[in-house]
Design goal:
The structure holds two protein chains of two kinds. Chain A is mostly helical. Chain A contains 16 helices and no strands. In chain A, helix 3 runs antiparallel to helix 16 and helix 6 runs antiparallel to helix 7. Chain A is globular. Chain B is 35% helix and 30% strand. In chain B, strands 3-1-9-5-7 form a five-stranded mixed beta sheet, with no helix packed on it. Chain B has a four-stranded antiparallel beta sheet with strand order 2-4-8-6, with no helix packed on it. The longest helix of chain B is centred in the first third of the chain and has 42 residues. Chain B is elongated and about 85 Å long. Chain B contains three helices and nine strands. The N and C termini of chain B lie far apart (74 Å). Chain B is an alpha+beta fold. The interface between A and B is large, with 40 and 38 residues.
Chain lengths: 544, 219
């Protein structure tokens, strides 16, 4: 493998600020907690994001296990239905807004400057601010569980009037928490766009960027476009609850269906916000371990952009049963199915990249391959749901739950884990323990399928979601799901163990930690010093 | 450093543009509310009918078709009224004028205000339904234990799509928290100069209202 880049003369400057304070012209960084509170370094902020996300992943996971424990057998045994509702809602909110989204932002913080040859993010202080908003937001959100009347109990989609007229008093706190989290995402997105558009290494055109950078650029545009809509919707809720307006209240001339339109106008692009960066990670890992350049780079970029554009035209497929006119049902059905085309292009490209590659199966590759297979399963159940007449049966059943967990758990989360295993050598200077990572992978993939595959059948047979009890005929499927969920949950401790061991030691990793890795981040030493690319690298184009 | 200057200017430009998009999208979310209303009014998609009386159109009655018109009435927590309709369904020809009596009963001993909000299903029929006279055009006031019968006069237009054989009109009663009530409350409290006390009382009252709501929900 010919190296993509000549050795970087600039790298000798890339020592840590502590060791080389003079050349950076700032004082030694504060120690202890203040170092983390005040840091403006993209690598440190990236680590903070990732640690926060992992913590929240476990908190959201515990909520899911409470739900699964209750559903282990029919009847009500462990928790009250009211608390069950809070658990399903909080599980969804935490996983979406506090686990998956910050994890991707963390990866973006760490890797985008390294991949485009920038010394840091464009707006480092804003970066610090947008991270520290998150702990505030989710402490507030979690504290609602302790308030009189309990936390949010209306599902993560918080449909009005359930979330306005009939909501617990803590809903105002929920709105505030979501506002803060939204501001954090928006600021993060502005920062990422500004970094990518203005700070690329000289000579790097947009079409030279690694796909992780491309997918994040498009994701950031989606965030800029739809997070304000979410902010608008929750502001309207706030006014309906506290100031006597009736945006969503039929009594005052409002319309509850309007809430669903507005929410899903945000919500559908939101689900692509959670999957596009995953596409980018997988598009980096598969070529590395297949030791072949990615097949169809340009088509990957265009497919990502096409998915992002189409995501604005499909929102009402979440609302097929609200009484849409036939024309609308047809429009949203066909536009939804159209998304399968660019997504199919992507899957085709990954498979073609593998074709005749010399593949090795290290842990990042295993997770990436599992992503391709299982995400495709989730995509196909999505196509089934897109069929409007069929959706009348599937709507609000466990089939939907199975669908979106297949695209989010072995989709988004497997991609995040693949990315972590892939980049850990760069972050820590050590390879993760491969044996442990392989165990983690096989336990995870068995756990995921055991948990979510039976839900397809329970859903097709008519089991409704978000209900703490169910009819006897669903008992076996639910037992399997619950066993799988606890198995999956417990096996994630292996992941934490692997990361901790990798931070503390392990096999030393060279600058180019993986034989087939090509992008700019592999030209800086492992572990990456605190400051990199202070002098921009010279970018040499390889044909994609 | 020329490059650094350039990057700085570029970052500023990007930030200004993205913030402009942000503000625009936030405004767009609010603009969607009236836009949605207008869109629905033109297309009738949300089943909301015109809240003003329309005049009869004298057109030939299409006796080849019978349309089944169903009436559903619903109360809501917080308003102690009952609403009933003289018949659950009727058959009409398109173009024919029809009349049906609705009865409102106030089951409590005190005066209250309410409003019936209509909804039409299927929504595609909305624009083909003409209401000549309807109680839903205005709020109703009922004295304690009063009973009031008001007719609904309507006509289906002849161009009603062929695939529609049944139309359902749903009326949901909602309480109207009328300004007069607050004014009355203020009058009774006028003597008390202690505005804290007044606020407390108001809060209690509104809490009570909410509790009633919750109680109604539980039942």
């Amino acid at each position: 493998m010919a190296p993509k880049l000549p050795p970087q003369p600039s790298l000798q400057h890339s020592t840590t600020a502590v060791a080389d304070g003079q050349s950076h012209g700032h004082a030694a960084p504060p120690k202890g907690i203040l170092r983390w509170l005040l840091t403006t370094n993209h690598k440190e902020i990236g680590s903070l994001y990732l640690i926060f996300s992992l913590t929240m992943f476990f908190i959201g996971g515990i909520f899911a296990l409470v739900v699964r424990a209750e559903l282990f057998q029919p009847g009500l045994q462990l928790i009250e239905p009211e608390f069950f509702n809070q658990m399903t809602t909080m599980h969804g909110l935490i996983m979406v807004f506090a686990a998956v989204m910050p994890a991707f932002t963390g990866l973006a913080n760490w890797m985008i400057p390294l991949q485009i040859g920038a010394p840091d993010m464009a707006l480092p202080r804003l970066n610090n601010f947008s991270f520290w908003l998150l702990p505030v937001s989710f402490t507030l959100l979690l504290s609602t569980l302790l308030m009189p009347g309990g936390g949010p109990n209306f599902g993560w989609t918080f449909y009005a009037p359930l979330s306005t007229n009939f909501a617990p008093p803590s809903t105002t706190f929920f709105i505030l928490a979501l506002h803060i989290a939204g501001i954090s995402s928006i600021l993060g997105a502005i920062n990422i766009i500004a970094t990518i558009l203005n700070m690329r290494a000289p000579g790097m055109r947009l079409m030279d960027m690694p796909l992780f950078v491309w997918t994040w650029l498009i994701t950031a545009f989606l965030l800029i476009a739809v997070m304000p809509v979410l902010a608008g919707v929750i502001t309207m809720m706030l006014m309906d609850i506290n100031f006597g307006t009736s945006f969503f209240d039929a009594a005052g001339g409002g319309d509850p269906v309007l809430f669903q339109h507005l929410f899903w106008f945000f919500g559908h692009p939101e689900v692509y916000i959670m999957i596009l960066p995953a596409f980018g990670i997988v598009s980096a890992i598969i070529p590395t371990f297949a030791r072949k350049p990615l097949f169809g780079y340009a088509s990957m970029v265009y497919a990502t952009a096409a998915i992002a554009l189409l995501s604005f035209l499909v929102w009402a497929h979440h609302m097929f049963i609200v009484g849409l006119p036939l024309v609308a049902e047809l429009f949203f059905m066909y536009s939804t199915m159209l998304i399968a085309v660019p997504t199919g292009v992507k899957v085709f490209n990954w498979v073609t990249t593998l074709f005749r590659g010399s593949i090795s199966f290290e842990s990042p590759m295993l997770f990436a391959l599992a992503f391709v297979v299982l995400f495709t399963i989730g995509g196909f159940s999505g196509l089934m749901l897109a069929i409007a007449p069929a959706d009348f049966q599937y709507h609000d059943t466990y089939f939907v739950v199975a669908h979106f967990h297949y695209v989010l758990v072995p989709g988004a989360i497997f991609a995040i884990m693949a990315g972590v295993y892939y980049w850990l050598p760069k972050w820590t200077g050590h390879y993760p323990n491969e044996k442990l990572a392989q165990w983690h992978f096989w336990f995870s993939i068995i756990g995921v399928n055991l948990t979510f595959f039976p839900m397809h059948f329970a859903g097709l047979a008519g089991m409704p979601r978000r209900i703490p009890d169910y009819a006897l005929q669903f008992a076996d499927f639910n037992l399997l799901s619950s066993v799988g969920a606890f198995f999956f949950g417990a096996s994630q401790l292996l992941f934490v163990l692997g990361v901790i061991l990798c931070v503390r030691g392990g096999k030393k990793a060279p600058a180019k930690a993986w034989e087939g890795a090509e992008d700019l981040e592999w030209t800086v030493p492992s572990p990456a010093p605190l400051h990199t690319f202070e002098t921009p690298p010279v970018f040499h184009r390889t044909s994609h | 450093m020329d490059d650094q200057e350039q990057a700085k200017v570029g970052v500023r430009r990007t930030v200004i543009r993205t913030v402009a998009v942000l503000v625009g999208m936030f405004g767009f979310a609010f603009a969607l509310v009236p836009l949605y209303d207008v869109f629905c009014q033109i297309t009738g998609l949300n089943g909301k009918v015109d809240a003003t009386a329309q005049s009869i159109v004298h057109e030939e009655v299409d006796e080849s078709r019978y349309i089944n018109v169903q009436f559903i009435t619903r109360g809501s927590p917080g308003l102690p009224w009952q609403m009933s309709v003289e018949m659950r369904q009727m058959s009409v020809h398109p173009g024919q004028m029809a009349e049906v009596d609705f009865t409102f009963t106030n089951n409590s001993h005190s005066e209250s205000w309410g409003r019936a909000v209509p909804s039409v299903s299927p929504s595609t029929a909305t624009t083909h339904l003409r209401k000549i006279s309807c109680f839903c055009f205005q709020e109703q006031q009922l004295q304690g234990n009063e009973r009031l019968t008001i007719p609904l006069v309507f006509q289906l237009s002849r161009d009603l799509p062929d695939d529609i054989n049944t139309i359902t009109l749903v009326y949901t009663l909602y309480p109207v928290e009328h300004a007069i009530q607050n004014a009355a409350l203020n009058n009774t409290l006028k003597s008390s100069a202690n505005s804290d006390f007044e606020n407390d009382l108001k809060n209690n009252l509104s809490n009570e209202l909410k509790n009633n709501k919750a109680a109604g929900e539980a039942i």
